[in-house]
Every structure is written in C-alpha cells, then in structure tokens.
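B., you asked whether I could sanity-check this one before it goes into the benchmark set. Here's the sequence:
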Amino acid sequence: MLVEARDTVGGCASTVTDLGARFNICNCDHNMIRALPIMDELDLTSHGLRYIETEISSIHLAHGETTAWPFFHDTERHLDALGQIHPAWVPQYRRYLNDALPVARLAIDMARTTPSTALMLRRVAGLRGRGARRLLAWSRSSAADVLRSYFDDWRIWMPAVSNGPTVWGVSPETPGTGLAAALYATKHLNRTGRPVGGSGALTDAIEASFRAAGGTVITSRMVEQLTTDSGGVRGVRLDDGSTITARAVVAACDPQRVFTDWLDDPTGEQAWPSSARDEIGDWRSQPVHDGYESKIDAVISSLPNYRHADQLREVVGEADLWSPTTVIHPTPEGLADAHRRRATGDVAPLPTMLLNIPSVADAAMQLSPDEHVLSLEVLFTPYTHDWSRSEEPSRWLELLDGLCQPDTLQVERWRAMTPDRYEREFQMHRGHTPAYAGSPLATLMGRPRPTTRHRSEVPGLYLGGAAAYPGAGVFGGAGRNAARAVMSDLNR
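And here's what the prediction gave me:
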C-alpha cells in the first residue's frame, strides 16, 4: 500500500498541468535509471513507458560567452565536436576518459548490486580492480581537484560541477565530492533519455505496474505518526485519524522528518535497543538544511534564437538545439560567490541555470504548432530569501532573454516554483530534499546502516528515497534496494 500526500503520485519526478500546459516538476533528463534493470523488472514498457533520445545530450555555455559546446553520447562524435570548437581539449579529454570510464563502470555496477559488503566486494574483485583504486581516491578528493588534474580550462569542467556538486548544494572544492568527476564518462556509458509525455510518464508507469501487481494507492492523505510497540514499527496513522497496520514501513521521504516528527521517544514498555535510540538521537541532532533550487515554467509563442546557435550549427548541423538541456554556468569565482550569498538569502547575479524546451522533441507536451513549454532551473535560490516580495524570478527571465537574439524569446505566461512553494505543495521541509552523500568506502562497509542497507535500527522501519543509497535524482535505486531488503527480511 502506497500513501501519498499529494493527489497524484510521483513527487518531484512528476509532470503536472498548470497555465494550460504540462510541466515537469524538475528536469526531465533521465540517465541513471536507464542503467538499472528497474524498467525490465517492473515491465514498465507494457505500462506505457517510452523514451525519446535527442541527438545532442546537452549543451554547455558560460555566462557572458557566445561559444557553446555540445555533448554527444557517442565518444568519437563527441571528440570530433570538441576538436572543431576547442582542439586543445581533445587530448585532455582522451586522458580523462581513459581514467574515468573504469570508475564510472564500477560505480554503475555497484549501484546495480543489492547493497551487501560481500556482494559489492565480489563485484569489485570480478572487475580485477579496474577503477577501484581510482574510485576510492576520487571519493576522498574534491570534484574541482579531480577535474583540474585533467583539464586546464574551467569552461570544460564547470558543467560537470553544475550537474554534480552544485545540484547537490555543496561547493566543488568540498572533499568527498570527487566522484562527480565521473559524470561525463557516465553519460557516455548511459544514454540520456526523456519519457514521452514528460518525466511523470515514468512514475505513471510505475504506479500502473504497482496496481497491476495488486498494490493499493491512497492519495491526498498525509502520514502524521508511525504506530509502534515494544517490537518496533507496526504501521502508520494518517491525518484523517485512520491507521494502517503493516509488518514493514518504507519511508521514501526525508528521514530526518520521519525520526523527528513521526516517532515518539521510545520509553517504558516500548523501550527499544540502545542502537535504535542512538539512531533516533543522531537524526534529531543533525542540522536542518534549507532548499536552494527554483524553476520557471513558461509557455512561449515561438522558439527563441539562441546567440550561440550560429556557432554551434557549424559543428552539429541541423540538430535540435532546443530540446537538449543547456547548462549555463558561472565562472568558478562566480560559483564561490553564489555559495557565499546563500548564507544571507541572496541570489547570485549570474546563477547556474538549466534550460530546455521539452515540447520540441516530444509532441505529447506541445500545446499547439505555435506554443511550446520552456523549463528553466535556477541555482542557488535560498529558502530564506523573501520570495513573497522578490523580483528575482522575473530577473531570471531577463537573463535568459539576454542569451537569445533580440525579440526572439516570447513568453506568454509563466510561473515560478521557489523553495517556499516546494515546501507548501510537496511537503519538503524548508523546501529541501535530502541526497545521499556517503563515500564509496562507507557504502561498501555499510555505514551508516539505515541509508546504505536501508534497514533502520528500529525494527520494521526501512529507508528509501533520495537520502538513501545510491542517492538523489531520477534514479530508482534506493527504492529498489529498500524493496529487496523488505522482501529478504519478510521471507526470512
């Protein structure tokens, strides 16, 4: 039985209707979930899931520059494109791929493996150590240090930072972020795709598969409390006063809220083992994080002409330049300034932005021959900013307009999803969604157990969702791992 607070399932991976259009709540690019066997295991194709693959995976551009560079899934085509735009990058990129591809393959293999120290060690041994030593070394380093060891031009490595540490909300100079350097290699191994009908077509297919297997879905109901006894968790109490009894409860939301808001202190006859009490105390003592992501959803009356389009056309020909996500990033110094401004609730003058027009490649999202859907994600946009009186969202549209030829960006109507709105509409405390940040070594050794092995020290409680291994994004791995843990325990 699935309990969902909203009136539809899918959370931030869903697609919603507003302003007479269909918008993806978050970015619509799916990569890692396509590397896992989830689609076959749940037979999602038979439940309507279809993917579109754009010719160009993504486009990368720095604020204030007109020279952009494309990313192709095919390695040789990618290197050929780099050779036409930045020839000096090609030997550096080849050296990077030689080191990064084994790391990326190992990380993907570990994500596909049921979390178990023995199983993961066998997988590493089966690869004869290829990439294992470097994976552990990178995981202790910062993303910036790893990327700078291969590239001498920040314009080639900043997009990897933008899709890695920046999306995670941390500085690329932070030790432990080094595996973000494998991003480009991962995109060469797994082709990025988009579900026909929007990102929510994936969660719609999962719901259909779930129902077909006998599952029940309850929507528009919030969990208020976990019901417990001396043996552990025994179910949930909903906001209408009803209760659901269960031998296992999987929490796919922020575990800090689960342990802080949904669990009473275990005392008296309900006293649990000291490990369970310690776990509850650990979660409650952790700092509360603020959200920092926003998104503009817009309906445009014509396709804009990007200032970098003419330069790109010489490399990619007539390929679609609107559908791929364009990563618009600041300089490393500008990103550092953006992190500093977060502390005071301010938005950087030139924030990291992710732009795409998904209705170009996907007719199922197009409104009419003349109107298209535009998505613009913006980082960092602090929760503590005064969004009720802010003119920031309008300024982001002005920044976007500056990246287009004059009068070619025609916005008919738009809305802004800011951290306060994510909190109201998606029950994201302070607009924040957690992300698993454990190192490969900690994951391998199963520390901490609740997020690496998906079993809480509180009997009957399991953790899925973005805070559990293998982490955030449209991934599915944490839910798959939690399901396997539940099945293993119940069968045993």
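One thing to flag: Residues 300 and 411 are 4 Å apart (CA to CA). Otherwise nothing jumped out at me.
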